[in-house]
C-alpha cells in the first residue's frame, strides 16, 4: 500500500508543480487552489509512505516521478522542446526509479 501511495504522491507532485507554473505567481485563483490542494495531498502521501519505505528510497522515487511527470507535461502541454536526448534522460530517470523499487 505504501508504494501505491508513494506513486500517487509523485503524480500529485507533477500536478502541483504544473499548477504552480499556471498560477502566475499566485495571481490566478483556480491554479493556485489546485497547487495548494495537490501540494498538501502530495506531502501527506509522502509522509505516509515514509512510515515503511526508507527515506532515501522513498524521497528519490517521489522526486523522480514528479520530475519525469513534470517534464513530460511541459513537452506535451506547454511546448517545451522534445529531443531524443531529453527522452533518453527521462528514460534513464525511470530506469533508476524502477531500480530503487526493485532494490528495496
Topology:
Layout: H1 2-22, H2 29-49, H3 55-77, H4 84-103
Description:
The longest helix has 23 residues, at 55-77. The chain has helices at 2-22, 29-49, 55-77, 84-103. The protein has 4 helices and no strands. It has 104 residues and is mainly alpha-helical.
Question: In a few lines, what is going on in this structure?
Answer:
By secondary structure, the protein is mostly helical.
**General form:** flat
Number of strands: 0
Beta-strand fraction estimate = under 5%
Q: How many distinct helices? A: 4
Largest sheet: none
List keywords for this structure.
0% strand
Amino acid at each position: 500500500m505504501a508504494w501505491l501511495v508513494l506513486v500517487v504522491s509523485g503524480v500529485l507532485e507533477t500536478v502541483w508543480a504544473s499548477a504552480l507554473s499556471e498560477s502566475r505567481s499566485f495571481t490566478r485563483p483556480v491554479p493556485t487552489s489546485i497547487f495548494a490542494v495537490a501540494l498538501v495531498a502530495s506531502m501527506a502521501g509522502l509522509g505516509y509512505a515514509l512510515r515503511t519505505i526508507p527515506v532515501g528510497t522513498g524521497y528519490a522515487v517521489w522526486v523522480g516521478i514528479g520530475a519525469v511527470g513534470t517534464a513530460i507535461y511541459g513537452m506535451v502541454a506547454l511546448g517545451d522542446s522534445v529531443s531524443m536526448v531529453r527522452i533518453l534522460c527521462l528514460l534513464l530517470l525511470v530506469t533508476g526509479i524502477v531500480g530503487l523499487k526493485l532494490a528495496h
